[in-house]
Design goal:
The protein has 317 residues and is α/β, with parallel strands linked by helices. It folds into two domains: 110 residues, NAD(P)-binding Rossmann-like Domain (Rossmann fold, 3-Layer(aba) Sandwich); 180 residues, Rossmann fold (3-Layer(aba) Sandwich), CATH 3.40.50.720. Helix content is 27%, strand content 17%. The strands form two sheets. Strands 8-7-6-9-10-11-12 form a seven-stranded parallel β-sheet, sandwiched between helices. A five-stranded parallel β-sheet has the order 2-1-3-4-5, covered by helices on one side. The radius of gyration is 22 Å and the shape is elongated. The structure holds NADP nicotinamide-adenine-dinucleotide phosphate (NAP) and glyoxylic acid. The site of NADP nicotinamide-adenine-dinucleotide phosphate has 31 residues, from α2, α4 and β7.
Length: 317
Protein backbone atom coordinates (compact mmCIF):
# COMPACT_ATOMS: atom_id res chain seq x y z
CA UNK A 1 0.00 0.00 0.00
CA UNK A 2 1.43 3.37 -1.00
CA UNK A 3 1.11 6.08 1.63
CA UNK A 4 3.26 9.12 1.19
CA UNK A 5 2.86 11.30 4.26
CA UNK A 6 1.74 10.62 7.80
CA UNK A 7 -1.49 12.52 7.15
CA UNK A 8 -2.51 10.21 4.36
CA UNK A 9 -1.52 6.99 6.14
CA UNK A 10 -4.35 4.54 6.61
CA UNK A 11 -5.49 4.09 10.20
CA UNK A 12 -7.01 1.01 11.77
CA UNK A 13 -8.78 1.14 15.09
CA UNK A 14 -7.69 -1.91 17.10
CA UNK A 15 -9.50 -3.41 20.06
CA UNK A 16 -7.10 -6.13 21.07
CA UNK A 17 -8.25 -9.12 23.14
CA UNK A 18 -4.87 -9.45 24.81
CA UNK A 19 -2.66 -6.41 25.33
CA UNK A 20 -0.79 -6.92 22.05
CA UNK A 21 -0.94 -3.34 20.77
CA UNK A 22 2.82 -3.02 20.39
CA UNK A 23 2.84 -6.05 18.08
CA UNK A 24 -0.12 -4.78 16.06
CA UNK A 25 1.68 -1.45 15.72
CA UNK A 26 4.85 -3.16 14.52
CA UNK A 27 3.24 -5.48 11.99
CA UNK A 28 0.74 -2.94 10.61
CA UNK A 29 3.65 -0.50 10.37
CA UNK A 30 5.20 -2.81 7.77
CA UNK A 31 2.24 -1.97 5.52
CA UNK A 32 2.43 1.76 6.33
CA UNK A 33 -0.72 1.48 8.40
CA UNK A 34 -1.05 3.22 11.76
CA UNK A 35 -3.14 1.78 14.55
CA UNK A 36 -5.39 3.69 16.91
CA UNK A 37 -5.68 1.90 20.23
CA UNK A 38 -9.24 1.38 21.41
CA UNK A 39 -8.76 3.55 24.48
CA UNK A 40 -7.40 6.42 22.33
CA UNK A 41 -10.24 6.40 19.81
CA UNK A 42 -12.14 9.50 20.99
CA UNK A 43 -10.06 12.02 19.01
CA UNK A 44 -10.31 9.91 15.81
CA UNK A 45 -14.00 8.99 15.92
CA UNK A 46 -14.97 11.08 12.89
CA UNK A 47 -12.31 9.74 10.53
CA UNK A 48 -11.77 6.04 11.24
CA UNK A 49 -12.75 3.89 8.26
CA UNK A 50 -11.46 0.50 9.44
CA UNK A 51 -11.75 -1.32 12.76
CA UNK A 52 -10.19 -4.60 13.90
CA UNK A 53 -12.06 -5.72 16.98
CA UNK A 54 -12.82 -8.42 19.51
CA UNK A 55 -15.99 -8.10 21.58
CA UNK A 56 -16.76 -4.41 21.07
CA UNK A 57 -19.31 -3.05 23.54
CA UNK A 58 -22.82 -2.43 22.15
CA UNK A 59 -23.04 1.05 20.64
CA UNK A 60 -19.28 1.58 20.42
CA UNK A 61 -18.92 0.96 16.67
CA UNK A 62 -21.95 3.17 16.01
CA UNK A 63 -19.86 6.09 17.30
CA UNK A 64 -17.72 5.86 14.16
CA UNK A 65 -19.62 7.66 11.37
CA UNK A 66 -16.89 7.02 8.76
CA UNK A 67 -16.59 3.28 9.47
CA UNK A 68 -16.53 1.24 6.24
CA UNK A 69 -15.17 -2.24 7.12
CA UNK A 70 -15.05 -4.24 10.35
CA UNK A 71 -12.38 -6.91 10.75
CA UNK A 72 -12.95 -9.60 13.37
CA UNK A 73 -9.85 -10.47 15.39
CA UNK A 74 -11.22 -14.00 15.58
CA UNK A 75 -12.35 -16.56 13.04
CA UNK A 76 -15.71 -16.53 14.78
CA UNK A 77 -17.98 -13.51 14.40
CA UNK A 78 -20.47 -14.36 17.13
CA UNK A 79 -18.94 -11.60 19.29
CA UNK A 80 -20.31 -9.17 16.69
CA UNK A 81 -23.87 -10.44 16.90
CA UNK A 82 -26.47 -8.90 19.13
CA UNK A 83 -28.28 -5.68 19.39
CA UNK A 84 -26.52 -2.45 18.43
CA UNK A 85 -23.09 -4.00 17.90
CA UNK A 86 -22.52 -3.76 14.13
CA UNK A 87 -24.03 -0.75 12.38
CA UNK A 88 -26.36 -1.83 9.53
CA UNK A 89 -24.70 -2.57 6.21
CA UNK A 90 -21.04 -2.57 7.28
CA UNK A 91 -19.18 -5.61 5.92
CA UNK A 92 -17.39 -7.92 8.36
CA UNK A 93 -14.21 -9.73 7.40
CA UNK A 94 -13.37 -12.90 9.38
CA UNK A 95 -9.87 -13.76 10.53
CA UNK A 96 -8.43 -16.43 8.26
CA UNK A 97 -4.72 -16.78 8.66
CA UNK A 98 -2.13 -19.54 8.54
CA UNK A 99 -1.03 -19.34 12.18
CA UNK A 100 -4.65 -19.36 13.42
CA UNK A 101 -5.21 -22.49 11.35
CA UNK A 102 -1.97 -24.20 12.38
CA UNK A 103 -2.68 -23.42 16.05
CA UNK A 104 -5.99 -25.27 15.75
CA UNK A 105 -4.34 -28.16 13.91
CA UNK A 106 -1.78 -28.46 16.75
CA UNK A 107 -4.47 -28.36 19.44
CA UNK A 108 -6.78 -30.94 17.86
CA UNK A 109 -3.94 -33.31 16.92
CA UNK A 110 -2.66 -33.03 20.49
CA UNK A 111 -6.06 -33.86 21.99
CA UNK A 112 -6.78 -36.70 19.57
CA UNK A 113 -3.41 -38.31 20.22
CA UNK A 114 -3.64 -37.79 24.00
CA UNK A 115 -7.08 -39.41 24.12
CA UNK A 116 -6.28 -42.15 21.62
CA UNK A 117 -3.10 -43.11 23.51
CA UNK A 118 -4.63 -42.75 27.03
CA UNK A 119 -2.18 -40.00 28.00
CA UNK A 120 -4.58 -38.41 30.49
CA UNK A 121 -4.89 -41.77 32.27
CA UNK A 122 -1.09 -42.12 32.39
CA UNK A 123 -0.86 -38.62 33.88
CA UNK A 124 -3.25 -39.71 36.65
CA UNK A 125 -1.34 -42.97 37.09
CA UNK A 126 1.90 -41.06 37.51
CA UNK A 127 0.39 -39.00 40.34
CA UNK A 128 -0.46 -42.27 42.11
CA UNK A 129 2.86 -43.95 41.18
CA UNK A 130 0.91 -46.60 39.25
CA UNK A 131 2.59 -48.58 36.44
CA UNK A 132 -0.26 -49.87 34.27
CA UNK A 133 0.29 -50.33 30.55
CA UNK A 134 -2.83 -50.76 28.42
CA UNK A 135 -3.23 -51.78 24.78
CA UNK A 136 -4.47 -49.30 22.23
CA UNK A 137 -6.28 -49.56 18.90
CA UNK A 138 -4.65 -48.96 15.55
CA UNK A 139 -5.58 -45.55 14.09
CA UNK A 140 -7.14 -47.27 11.06
CA UNK A 141 -9.62 -48.87 13.49
CA UNK A 142 -10.83 -45.47 14.68
CA UNK A 143 -12.88 -42.81 12.90
CA UNK A 144 -12.55 -39.11 13.61
CA UNK A 145 -15.69 -37.14 12.77
CA UNK A 146 -15.25 -33.40 12.32
CA UNK A 147 -18.30 -31.20 12.75
CA UNK A 148 -17.62 -28.16 10.58
CA UNK A 149 -15.39 -28.71 7.56
CA UNK A 150 -14.52 -25.09 6.94
CA UNK A 151 -11.10 -23.44 7.02
CA UNK A 152 -10.17 -25.01 10.36
CA UNK A 153 -12.03 -28.31 10.14
CA UNK A 154 -10.65 -29.19 6.72
CA UNK A 155 -7.06 -28.33 7.76
CA UNK A 156 -7.46 -30.46 10.89
CA UNK A 157 -8.84 -33.34 8.81
CA UNK A 158 -5.93 -33.21 6.38
CA UNK A 159 -3.38 -33.13 9.20
CA UNK A 160 -4.91 -36.07 11.05
CA UNK A 161 -4.74 -38.27 7.97
CA UNK A 162 -0.99 -38.70 8.44
CA UNK A 163 -1.62 -40.85 11.53
CA UNK A 164 -3.81 -43.27 9.61
CA UNK A 165 -7.21 -42.52 11.18
CA UNK A 166 -10.37 -42.65 9.10
CA UNK A 167 -11.62 -39.10 8.72
CA UNK A 168 -15.18 -38.01 8.03
CA UNK A 169 -16.66 -34.51 8.17
CA UNK A 170 -20.04 -32.84 8.40
CA UNK A 171 -20.95 -29.40 7.06
CA UNK A 172 -23.88 -27.53 5.57
CA UNK A 173 -22.75 -28.02 1.99
CA UNK A 174 -21.13 -31.08 0.40
CA UNK A 175 -17.31 -31.09 0.35
CA UNK A 176 -14.82 -32.80 -1.89
CA UNK A 177 -11.60 -33.28 0.09
CA UNK A 178 -9.23 -36.18 -0.64
CA UNK A 179 -9.76 -39.08 1.78
CA UNK A 180 -12.34 -37.24 3.90
CA UNK A 181 -15.84 -38.57 3.50
CA UNK A 182 -18.30 -35.70 3.33
CA UNK A 183 -21.62 -35.73 5.16
CA UNK A 184 -23.79 -32.65 4.92
CA UNK A 185 -27.07 -31.22 6.05
CA UNK A 186 -29.30 -32.24 8.93
CA UNK A 187 -30.44 -35.40 7.15
CA UNK A 188 -26.92 -36.89 7.22
CA UNK A 189 -25.97 -35.94 10.77
CA UNK A 190 -27.13 -39.20 12.35
CA UNK A 191 -25.22 -41.40 9.87
CA UNK A 192 -22.12 -39.26 10.49
CA UNK A 193 -22.39 -39.57 14.28
CA UNK A 194 -22.98 -43.33 14.20
CA UNK A 195 -19.57 -43.79 12.57
CA UNK A 196 -17.62 -41.37 14.80
CA UNK A 197 -15.31 -42.57 17.59
CA UNK A 198 -13.63 -39.18 18.16
CA UNK A 199 -15.94 -36.22 17.61
CA UNK A 200 -14.24 -32.89 16.91
CA UNK A 201 -16.52 -29.86 16.95
CA UNK A 202 -15.31 -26.86 14.95
CA UNK A 203 -18.70 -25.33 14.25
CA UNK A 204 -19.42 -21.61 14.54
CA UNK A 205 -21.96 -20.33 17.04
CA UNK A 206 -25.23 -19.91 15.12
CA UNK A 207 -28.91 -20.49 15.82
CA UNK A 208 -28.66 -23.86 14.04
CA UNK A 209 -25.55 -25.09 15.86
CA UNK A 210 -26.70 -24.06 19.34
CA UNK A 211 -27.25 -27.17 21.44
CA UNK A 212 -26.30 -29.52 18.61
CA UNK A 213 -24.40 -31.74 21.08
CA UNK A 214 -27.34 -32.88 23.16
CA UNK A 215 -28.77 -36.07 24.65
CA UNK A 216 -29.99 -37.29 21.25
CA UNK A 217 -26.83 -36.62 19.24
CA UNK A 218 -24.45 -37.73 22.01
CA UNK A 219 -26.33 -41.01 22.39
CA UNK A 220 -26.03 -41.56 18.62
CA UNK A 221 -22.24 -41.71 18.99
CA UNK A 222 -20.89 -45.22 19.64
CA UNK A 223 -20.39 -46.11 23.31
CA UNK A 224 -16.93 -45.05 24.43
CA UNK A 225 -16.66 -42.15 21.99
CA UNK A 226 -14.69 -39.03 22.89
CA UNK A 227 -15.78 -35.42 22.32
CA UNK A 228 -13.44 -32.53 21.59
CA UNK A 229 -15.01 -29.08 21.37
CA UNK A 230 -12.92 -26.16 20.17
CA UNK A 231 -15.64 -24.44 18.12
CA UNK A 232 -17.95 -22.67 20.54
CA UNK A 233 -19.39 -23.73 23.89
CA UNK A 234 -22.92 -22.97 22.70
CA UNK A 235 -22.83 -26.21 20.67
CA UNK A 236 -23.02 -28.23 23.91
CA UNK A 237 -25.97 -28.82 26.21
CA UNK A 238 -23.79 -29.12 29.30
CA UNK A 239 -26.17 -31.18 31.41
CA UNK A 240 -26.56 -33.70 28.58
CA UNK A 241 -22.80 -34.02 28.12
CA UNK A 242 -22.27 -34.38 31.87
CA UNK A 243 -24.89 -37.16 32.00
CA UNK A 244 -23.31 -38.95 29.01
CA UNK A 245 -19.88 -38.70 30.66
CA UNK A 246 -21.20 -39.94 33.98
CA UNK A 247 -22.93 -42.92 32.37
CA UNK A 248 -19.73 -43.81 30.50
CA UNK A 249 -21.45 -43.58 27.10
CA UNK A 250 -18.99 -40.77 26.34
CA UNK A 251 -15.57 -41.85 27.59
CA UNK A 252 -14.10 -38.37 27.88
CA UNK A 253 -14.23 -34.81 26.64
CA UNK A 254 -11.60 -32.20 25.88
CA UNK A 255 -13.26 -28.81 26.10
CA UNK A 256 -11.69 -25.49 25.13
CA UNK A 257 -14.87 -23.42 24.82
CA UNK A 258 -17.88 -23.06 27.11
CA UNK A 259 -21.38 -21.65 27.21
CA UNK A 260 -20.17 -19.10 29.76
CA UNK A 261 -16.54 -18.00 29.77
CA UNK A 262 -14.61 -17.89 31.98
CA UNK A 263 -15.95 -21.23 33.21
CA UNK A 264 -17.20 -20.61 36.74
CA UNK A 265 -15.07 -22.15 39.47
CA UNK A 266 -18.00 -24.24 40.74
CA UNK A 267 -18.83 -25.76 37.35
CA UNK A 268 -19.05 -29.59 37.56
CA UNK A 269 -16.67 -29.99 34.60
CA UNK A 270 -13.70 -28.97 36.76
CA UNK A 271 -14.16 -31.97 39.05
CA UNK A 272 -14.76 -34.60 36.39
CA UNK A 273 -11.91 -37.06 35.88
CA UNK A 274 -12.74 -37.57 32.23
CA UNK A 275 -13.00 -33.88 31.28
CA UNK A 276 -9.92 -31.99 30.12
CA UNK A 277 -10.28 -28.23 30.20
CA UNK A 278 -8.35 -25.48 28.45
CA UNK A 279 -9.29 -21.77 28.70
CA UNK A 280 -10.24 -20.99 25.08
CA UNK A 281 -6.68 -21.18 23.81
CA UNK A 282 -7.01 -23.85 21.13
CA UNK A 283 -5.83 -21.27 18.65
CA UNK A 284 -4.97 -17.58 18.78
CA UNK A 285 -4.66 -14.67 16.43
CA UNK A 286 -1.06 -13.58 16.18
CA UNK A 287 -0.54 -9.97 15.02
CA UNK A 288 2.26 -11.09 12.69
CA UNK A 289 0.51 -12.51 9.65
CA UNK A 290 -2.90 -11.33 10.82
CA UNK A 291 -1.92 -7.70 10.22
CA UNK A 292 -1.01 -8.78 6.69
CA UNK A 293 -4.45 -10.37 6.20
CA UNK A 294 -6.11 -7.09 7.28
CA UNK A 295 -3.71 -4.88 5.32
CA UNK A 296 -4.17 -6.90 2.13
CA UNK A 297 -7.93 -6.66 2.45
CA UNK A 298 -7.76 -2.91 3.07
CA UNK A 299 -5.56 -2.64 -0.03
CA UNK A 300 -8.13 -4.56 -2.06
CA UNK A 301 -10.93 -2.42 -0.70
CA UNK A 302 -9.14 0.84 -1.52
CA UNK A 303 -8.55 -0.44 -5.06
CA UNK A 304 -12.25 -1.24 -5.43
CA UNK A 305 -11.74 -5.02 -5.39
CA UNK A 306 -14.03 -7.35 -3.39
CA UNK A 307 -13.11 -8.13 0.21
CA UNK A 308 -12.12 -11.72 0.98
CA UNK A 309 -13.40 -13.95 3.82
CA UNK A 310 -16.58 -11.97 4.36
CA UNK A 311 -18.86 -13.19 7.13
CA UNK A 312 -22.57 -13.30 6.57
CA UNK A 313 -24.35 -12.41 9.79
CA UNK A 314 -27.70 -13.51 8.36
CA UNK A 315 -26.29 -17.02 7.79
CA UNK A 316 -24.59 -16.65 11.17
CA UNK A 317 -20.91 -17.18 10.29
P1 LIG B 1 -15.64 -21.60 8.60
O1 LIG B 1 -14.56 -21.71 7.58
O2 LIG B 1 -16.73 -20.62 8.39
O3 LIG B 1 -16.27 -23.08 8.78
C1 LIG B 1 -17.46 -23.31 9.44
C2 LIG B 1 -17.93 -24.70 9.08
O4 LIG B 1 -19.11 -25.00 9.82
C3 LIG B 1 -18.30 -24.83 7.60
O5 LIG B 1 -17.86 -26.05 7.08
C4 LIG B 1 -19.83 -24.78 7.62
O6 LIG B 1 -20.45 -25.46 6.55
C5 LIG B 1 -20.10 -25.49 8.92
N1 LIG B 1 -21.44 -25.17 9.42
C6 LIG B 1 -21.91 -23.97 9.85
N2 LIG B 1 -23.21 -24.07 10.19
C7 LIG B 1 -23.55 -25.37 9.97
C8 LIG B 1 -24.74 -26.09 10.11
N3 LIG B 1 -25.87 -25.51 10.58
N4 LIG B 1 -24.75 -27.39 9.78
C9 LIG B 1 -23.63 -27.99 9.32
N5 LIG B 1 -22.45 -27.35 9.15
C10 LIG B 1 -22.42 -26.05 9.48
O7 LIG B 1 -15.04 -21.28 10.02
P2 LIG B 1 -13.59 -21.67 10.60
O8 LIG B 1 -12.62 -20.62 10.25
O9 LIG B 1 -13.30 -23.08 10.25
O10 LIG B 1 -13.89 -21.53 12.17
C11 LIG B 1 -14.86 -22.35 12.79
C12 LIG B 1 -15.13 -21.89 14.21
O11 LIG B 1 -14.03 -22.25 15.04
C13 LIG B 1 -15.25 -20.38 14.42
O12 LIG B 1 -16.54 -19.91 14.06
C14 LIG B 1 -14.99 -20.24 15.90
O13 LIG B 1 -16.22 -20.37 16.60
C15 LIG B 1 -14.11 -21.45 16.23
N6 LIG B 1 -12.74 -21.07 16.63
C16 LIG B 1 -12.34 -21.39 17.89
C17 LIG B 1 -11.05 -21.09 18.29
C18 LIG B 1 -10.55 -21.48 19.65
O14 LIG B 1 -9.47 -21.04 20.06
N7 LIG B 1 -11.26 -22.31 20.37
C19 LIG B 1 -10.16 -20.45 17.42
C20 LIG B 1 -10.61 -20.12 16.14
C21 LIG B 1 -11.92 -20.45 15.76
P3 LIG B 1 -20.24 -24.96 5.02
O15 LIG B 1 -18.78 -25.23 4.72
O16 LIG B 1 -21.14 -25.82 4.24
O17 LIG B 1 -20.56 -23.50 5.02
C1 LIG C 1 -11.40 -17.68 18.55
O1 LIG C 1 -12.16 -18.19 19.29
C2 LIG C 1 -11.72 -17.29 17.22
O2 LIG C 1 -12.91 -17.23 16.87
O3 LIG C 1 -10.77 -17.00 16.46
Amino acid sequence: MQNTSNNSRTKVLVKSDFDRYAEWELYFGRFNIDIVRWEDRQEHLQTLRFALVWQPEPGSLAELPALEVIFSIGAGVDHLKGENIVPEGIPIVRMVQDSLTSGMVEYICYQILALHRDMYQYARDQKAAVWKPVTYALPKERTIGILGLGVLGSAVGRALQQFGFNIIGWSRSEKSIDNIQSYYGDAQLEAFLEKTDYLVCLLPNTLETTGILNQKTLSTLPKGAYVINAGRGTAVVDNDLIAALQSGHIAGAALDVFNLEPLSSDHPYWQMENVFITPHIASMTHPEGSAAHVAQNIGRYLEGKPLTHLADLKRGY
